[in-house]
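Researcher: Let's do a round of design. I'm pasting the structure tokens now; please hold your answer until I've finished.
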């Protein structure tokens, strides 16, 4: 009986993780959309995609608000990856826009 209860509890916790993962995907996608919009604005202003001072601000912010159980170094690694992927998206969008502008289209 205790084993059934433990398995049931594990299943509940796994479902909770699945639900949280769904929210994380939604939030990461929303964040990526914002990063793409920022990338577009940067291009219009002639700014570089990579802005180390902003990256430091973001990492500092998440470390200040971090309450664990992940430590600040773990949070830093996670956000470095998130920021890296956002930069990659900005570059892809930038390259795509450059290609579209270089090719005469049927507009």
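Researcher: That's everything. Go ahead.
Model: Designed sequence:
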């Amino acid at each position: 009986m205790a084993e059934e209860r433990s398995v049931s509890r594990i299943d509940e916790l796994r479902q909770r993780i699945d639900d949280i993962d769904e929210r994380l995907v939604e939030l990461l996608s929303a964040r990526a959309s914002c990063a793409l919009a920022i990338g577009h604005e940067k291009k219009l202003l002639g700014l570089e995609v990579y802005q180390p001072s902003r990256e430091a601000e973001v990492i500092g912010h998440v470390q200040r608000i971090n309450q664990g159980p992940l430590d600040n170094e773990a949070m830093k690694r996670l956000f470095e990856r998130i920021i890296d992927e956002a930069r990659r998206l900005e570059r892809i969008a930038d390259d795509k826009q450059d290609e579209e502008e270089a090719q005469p289209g049927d507009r």
